[in-house]
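Note to self: keep these together.
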Amino acid sequence: MPLILHKDIEDGKIGLWKITEELSELERLSRLSEPDLIAYSGISALHRKKEWLATRALLNELTDEQTSIRYDNEGRPAPENGKYNISISHTTGFVAVMLHDVLIPGIDIELASRNIGRVARRFLSPEEFEECSHQTGISNEKLLLHWCAKEAIFKMVPFNNIEFSTDILISLNENIQNSGLFAGVFKNHSDQISIPLEYIEECGVVMVWGLVDLTIFR
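Structure:
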């Protein structure tokens, strides 16, 4: 059971799982309900099956109970029992889950080895692109933190049709370490809402997460 990170936060939890199991073992650990079995039967790709099962196995591990996940019309996940708010992310070989009793969580993970320099200008503002640049080129580490941060914020806010390069802006410290704090800003019409973020690099995975109170958008 490769639960490589279990982090308790106030009124919530974060888990990171490395997928090493065979499919049969993940099926056992996920303890699927009848509705889940129906949904699972519709997945054909092996890697998607493993990600789907590992997400539910991780959720069971974090909550010590069997919990089904449903999705709203906008594709946002929620537990069937309604006890907490949830955010989910996955990348090749890993899944992450963040839970919170009150606030809306947002979490995103990417492999630290993933090179996203070619698409950087699609999701960065000109100022952010400059922030990620240095004399020898572009810092892929900073690019990944920007990308994960924007994905995490996108999962927190109750809006669609968000333009990452203009509606979500990230401010990083000059020196990036294995973990730390930074901030993002979500532009909602004329308002600019600051959202605190945290990051960590663990087992070759970059992970960024944060929390937001939905009442600030009303």
